[in-house]
Amino acid sequence: MVKKSSSAEKRHRKSEERRLRNKSAKSAVRSSVKKFISLAQKKDPEAETALREMIKKIDTAAGKGIISKNSAARKKSRMQRYYNVTKAAH
Known about the structure:
Strand content: under 5%
Structural class: mainly alpha
Number of strands: 0
């Protein structure tokens, strides 16, 4: 039977913790995007605050390296454009 080194066991534990933390952050970003889109489609005045909250979550995830900077910029740009289009059609 092969004995794992204690450092390998710790590395595995830590990577699992990071994976769950990253998964949670990505999920929060996706949830905030869905919330914003649903509010924007209804032309709800709360859409602007949802947009700000979503941008904050995207920036936080990008700052921590959970999503790439370019991916974050692309998401923010598309959502801002979507907000502007729906607001203009208002």
